[in-house]
Amino acid sequence: MTERALRLGTRRSKLAMAQSGQVAETVSQLTGRPVELVEITTYGDTSREHLAQIGGTGVFVTALRDALLAGEVDFAVHSLKDLPTAQPDDLVLAAVPLREDPRDVLIARDGLTFAELPNGARIGTGSPRRMAQLNAYARNHGMTIETVPIRGNIDTRIGFVHKGELDAVVLAAAGLHRIGRIDEVTDFLSVDTVLPAPGQGALAIECAASDASLIAALAELDDPYTRVAVTAERSLLAALEAGCSAPVGALADLLADGQIVKEMRLRGVVGTTDGSTLVQLSTTGPVPETHDQALALGRELAAEMLAKGAAGLMGERVL
Predict the structure, then answer these.
(1) Of 32, 66, 145, 240, which residue is the least packed, with the fewest Cβ within 10 Å?
(2) pLDDT tens digits, residue range 83-135?
């Protein structure tokens, strides 16, 4: 008898459907079972308010998790940067696949790079993290820019530029890669200029903690280096008691000597959205071999950032 199809819960956006479709295909190959996408609308998809106003943390995730807990879907795919840092007891993060490019990118009119934007350029982003770092960079380099809060899917955001309402928008490279629109990028922003959101570019595949066979199957998709990196980044976010819409950037990257990975560097930044104040620190150490070591790396850097005044710079606090 043919086993029933596995039900994969996904948001309805073009990006979510694209990345879930890619995961579905891989899981089907691994398990020999068909995988059907179950589209779920989340509060973050329907609200037109800015993320900081509606709480940010979990607005794209809660409905998917509710469907998992209710047994309406077997597993779910999230953009990892949208996941709250607290993991529900009944659910498990079964796989974190190999990370896509974590950088932010610019799509600007006339093919302009960030450095080529004219004074007074209006740059759209819905992210306080991006606003803080873009404004700080502009202040330090004699540029005058205006960061404009925007919401909407990728088409909507790029449309602001095509219609002439904005000079540029900032988006995540990973999303554009996954929907085949990376060619529209006019500038890849260095992580030295704009540090990405914790977990940016990575996917999270979640399922019920009680489903041992599915956990084992999904584990085949896990990339251990990506997992320890995003664990350290999210640990920093949690220790700062900040939500996913707070102005916090973090990136853990591997430092290699030739083909041999030697160390992991974790960088973090917190800033005011006008860019007037940033706390930006980094730490380098052995690549974590366990979940607890990755957690400790994030906590240690967060403690240093808090000692430098990071707590006073975050507009959103998770208590």
Answers:
(1) 32
(2) 988 889 999 999 999 999 999 999 999 999 999 999 999 999 999 999 999 99
Cα 89 off chain centre by = 22
pLDDT band per the 50, 70, 90 thresholds, residue 44:
low
> 121-125 and 145-149 as β-strands: parallel, antiparallel, unpaired?
parallel
Yes or no: say if 90 and 63 are a contact pair by the CB < 8 Å rule.
Answer: no
User: Residue 155 catalytic?
Assistant: no
Question: Tens digits of per-residue pLDDT, 88-101?
Answer: 999 999 999 999 99
Nearest to 131 by CA among 150, 155, 159, 154: 150
Which one from 74, 82, 104, 167 is the annotated catalytic residue? 82
> Residue for token digits 């083909």?
259
Closest CA to 8 of 222, 202, 216, 214: 214
10 Å Cβ neighbour count for 213? 8
